[in-house]
Design goal:
CATH topology: Recoverin, domain 1
CATH architecture: Orthogonal Bundle
Radius of gyration: 12 Å
Number of helices: 7
Strand content: 5-15%
Distance between the termini: 25 Å
CATH class: Mainly Alpha
Largest sheet: 2 strands, antiparallel
Number of strands: 2
CATH superfamily: EF-hand
Strand order of the largest sheet: 1-2
Amino acid sequence: MSLSSILSADAIDSAIKDCQAPDSFCPKKFFQLCGLTKKSPQDVKKVFGILDNDASGFIEEEELKFFLQRFTPGARVLTDKETKAFLCAADDDGDGQIGVDEFQAMVLS
């Protein structure tokens, strides 16, 4: 399954273009622009599964760096500052990784 089977290619392009400059990535804005905030909790869980590259059940800091590339292969890597801010914003239990429930809460809140 690919992200474009859940989200429109145009919406993904728009979200990627919005955060091309280093340190301009905002997870909440990205989720809105790509249309993820309008999806069902089930679809958000499917997206999480795609983003969880190693299928560990968590999105770790190393996977977060390549977050944009999971949407568009040629996209930039997140900066360390963006990666840490994203992790802090979503990691409710402070274990250093984002679980599916934390991801869903961030996207849909």
